[in-house]
Amino acid sequence: MKEYWGSLASVLGVLAFCQSLLQVLFPPELRFAALKLFNRIFNVFNSYCYFDITEIDGVNTNELYNAVQLYLSSSVSISGSRLSLTRALNSSAITFGLTNNDTLFDTFNGVNVLWEHIVTQRQAQTFSWRPMPDEKRGFTLRIKKKDKSLILDSYLDYIMEKANDIRRKNEDRLLYTNSRGGSLDSRGHPWESVPFKHPSTFETLAMDPAKKGEIMEDLKDFANGQSFYQKTGRAWKRGYLLYGPPGTGKSSMIAAMANYLGYDIYDLELTEVHNNSELRKLLMKTSSKSIIVIEDIDCSINLSNRKKGTANNSSIGRSYCDPEMRSGPGVGTGDEGGNSITLSGLLNFTDGLWSCCGSERIFVFTTNHVDKLDPALLRSGRMDMHVFMNYCSFPALKILLKNYLGREESDLDEGVLKELEEVIDKAEMTPADISELLIKNRRNKDKAVIELLEALKERAERKSKSGECVREKNLNDVEEEEQEKRALDSPKEGCAFDESCKKDEEDEEKKIK
Ligand SMILES: Nc1ncnc2c1ncn2[C@@H]1O[C@H](COP(=O)(O)OP(=O)(O)OP(=O)(O)O)[C@@H](O)[C@H]1O
Ligand SMILES: [Mg+2]
């Protein structure tokens, strides 16, 4: 053993001696040139090329580093025994990554590449306004020289895209609102956000399964349709109009859409937007893969009215649906002096050139009164899908019974089921009303079903009675109208009327004279 240490010491001594001899014999310039030459020769014979992706590029964080880290964390073939675990802010998932000098093979388009994570200690800190981390971290990508041009660009694009997907999947959805009324936050952002935790999904949504399936298909096609939209020269966006009585699930449907696609929601409060240019700015600050929602579009905005209202208060209370208002000078031309929001501004927002800044966005408008909407908003190509959210139907009821009481169709008494089916359409009850009833009695499931049936029957009866009254009233009205018409059309009576009018006029003229 002693001999071994002795010989090692002598070898090291010889090496140190050679090094100092080289330093004496060759000046630094010569050594540097020799090293350069050696590197060149090495590169000529080396069949690989290397790319360094450092964590910090100058003073900025390198987005590509984070993307590579996230992308590699999704790889199942990490062989290292030590992995780093991270959980980002707003995230409900944990990601893992490579630790120091760990390596990982990856394959892209049939080409093998090697990733190495390199961590070194940062040398003595130079002065910087921004504190630098103690460690210098980076990835080195090794690719065969012949494959370099084949994959480099597309591979890096692929990594960025994949990382964004993982980030979106890991992060909770965000719900944005512009309720600050146009003021900006410290970063100049007009939107405020909170984590979006709405539990509504397409499974919990009570509606006709065929219609639901159609909407889900449409959303999937949209999300996967980048190349289709590019090929057809259309902006990558889609418009949904959800209409129907209150409590039929319009807002729940929006939440289900966001959860299904993993998109954020921008809840646009139009009453807080002062003019068209503000609307445009809000649009520009929305991210792609998002749903932009305007709820109760018929009530949330009095388009040209707002402009007229400032000049003449008598017009307050009239909506943009009023044809007179629509054809007014302020509508349809664009900014209109820049101090009001107009129908054309809104249409530009959803449909015009500005709507394409960013991509992959869904616009959803909701209303309880589709008949009040301007035809310009409804014309084809503007709102691609018109979805009528109706009162609870029998298939929708079955979904509610399953979700709230855990009762499948087969668990229910056949007679009760039949009665429910007969009465549900006549009762015209909303899913919101039905779910309230089911929640109230959810501990006693049989009682819940019986009470629901009774409530539906009672309601159906009331509806049919009120329907009869309305029908009777309508008949009376029609009869009265016809009588009036007959009275007006009758020549004799008409003459008498004309004569008496003439007489009155003559008397009036005499008085004046
Ligand atoms: N189709 C549905 N499926 C499941 N739950 C529903 C449905 N419709 C309504 N609900 C229940 O009723 C509540 C109210 O529904 P929601 O807010 O979605 O109705 P809405 O159509 O948006 O009403 P409004 O027109 O008043 O905005 C929801 O929280 C949900 O629990
Ligand atoms: Mg709603």
Automatic annotation (TrEMBL):
GO BP, sorted A to Z? response to stress
Q: Where is this region: Disordered?
A: 461-513
Q: Which domain of life is it from?
A: Eukaryota
Query: Where in the sequence does UniProt note compositional bias of the Basic and acidic residues kind?
Result: 461-476, 483-492, 499-513
Q: Which residues form the AAA+ ATPase domain?
A: 236-393
> What keywords are assigned to this protein?
Hydrolase, Magnesium
* Co-factor(s): Mg(2+)
GO molecular function terms listed in the Swiss-Prot or TrEMBL record: ATP binding; ATP hydrolysis activity
Q: Which reaction does it catalyse?
A: ATP + H2O = ADP + phosphate + H(+)
Q: Which residues cross the membrane?
A: none
Would the keyword Hydrolase be found if you checked this record's keyword annotation? yes
Return the CDD domains for the record.
Answer: RecA-like_BCS1
**Which SMART domains does the record cross-reference, listed alphabetically?**
AAA (SM00382)
Q: Does the keyword Magnesium apply?
A: yes
Q: What family does the entry list?
A: Belongs to the AAA ATPase family. BCS1 subfamily.
> What is the recorded name of this protein?
AAA+ ATPase domain-containing protein
